[in-house]
Amino acid sequence: MAEDLDIFTTVTAEIEGEDINYFMNNPGMGGGDGSAVMEAESDGLWMDDDAGAGSKIEGTEDDATSVLDEFKEVDDSKSKVAMSDGTSVVIPEIEDAPRTGANQGVTPLALGEKDEAPEAESSSEISVKVVEWQKIGESSMNSYVQYKVTCQATKAGWPKDPLTVYRRYNEFLWIQEELRNFERCAIVPPLPEKTVTMSRFDPEFLEYRRRALSRFLRRVCAHPVLAECAALRIFVSEGELPEKSSPAPAPAPQASPSKSTGGSVGVTSASGWLSFIGDKITSVATTVTEMFNPVEHDNWFDQKTKYFTLLEANVLQLADNSAKLVAIRRAQVEALIPFRSTCELLAQTEAGTPSEDCGDRRIASAFLRLRDIGAEQSLLDSELADGMAQHWEQELRDSYRYILELKVMLDHRVKVMSKYQSAQAVTKVKQDRLERMNVSSPDYARSHKEVEDASAVEEQARVEFTLTSEKCKKEILRFEDIRIGDIRKLVTLFAQMHVNHNVREKDLWKGLLAEV
After folding, report:
1. By the 8 A CB rule, do 180 and 188 touch?
2. Of the candidates 496, 515, 508, which has an alpha carbon nearest to the alpha carbon of residue 15?
3. CB 265 within 8 A of CB 393
4. 13: which strand partners?
5. Are 41 and 516 in contact (CB under 8 A)?
6. Is residue 184 within 8 Å of 208, Cβ to Cβ?
7. Chain-centre distance of CA 357, in angstroms?
8. Rounded Cα gap, residues 433 and 376, in angstroms
9. Looking at 116-242, which runs of residues are DSSP E strands?
């Protein structure tokens, strides 16, 4: 099912920096003139530099492969690089990601897709991208943001020429609702959150949203059922959208993350916008018809419902706990500031002046070197914190939103089940009354007709419930199959970030020991 891997998540990352070695020699998440992209293909992760040669990651096999050994399904075609002890590990390849228009110079923060995602394009006859965002208007009151959507399709019934439209965020909400109404037994990909307490024109936030919206469309186009929705073609080809169709399932009030995170669980960028997104993740209610409380007789669905309920809570909790780890890293960066200042003061004290016969310039030099290493350590810790927040925590929150969408589908099945079991109950009541009735009763014919009508309604509800259950089961199996590969990629990326950080940190302090 390699062609389906795009629906749940595609593990990618973009970082700024002239050196493509991931988190190795990058001067900062927002610095540098070039860009690098780490992308998880349908068969694994790659890392590469501008020229296409693999980047070498120093370390030992225990450093890099103790976690990766849990995922042995690695394609032999991927690049391997030699480790310092003679072993080798698989290293992701990367290539440049183009920046155009209003997006130039903006550090992308979203983990989730590269614009030209091979796994999505190769598995779909529709290639849709959100290539840039544009702010329209000068004043804050009258300004808004629109997103440039491009489409190239080979699918029958679609225009063959390239298409370009401009859409606002609310119009993405429109297509999401249309997709839900089109097929209730499909998991509609989640959209990025709408509510933000920071500036809605923050370039980092807009770049994050652009990439998330592009990812949403790619997932839809890769879905074998949702890609058939006529509203999708309208969305990418026509300027004016029609009125909304019948209402989709209403979401419940938004759920806040665990209070233990201090209310900030998203990525903390320079402007702090993404930390508020984590607080606004939408929770979906699983309600049933108040008139009838259905009973789940299918053990498979009963177990899956319990599993996804636990998974929803645990994935969110892991994201919250990951936010705590990010906060610790950032606190360490802050703590190194007075450390470096004190080292510089000690160096000045030891250096004295040429006329003073006190202190030792060799000690002064050592403290100055310690100050410089403290600055480099701050950079390393800051880069790791950014990476964990952007490429681990946010991906967990994306997974959480996807589980919520899955629960929307399960909620629909529960409602259909409630309708079927209600019809069964009505038929039984009418049947019991008919059996107690004397055949010669003047109401017997009417009651017999009511039983026939109720039985017909019950049969229709049974057919609908059976078909709904079959579709939902197929969708859940597809979701789980994709999720296996996605988690492997996510854990691999998480491990690689820490390996790279630890190797650089070790080399940094080993250099000081050699100098001392």
Report:
1. yes
2. 496
3. yes
4. 38
5. no
6. no
7. 62
8. 84
9. 126-136, 144-153, 163-167
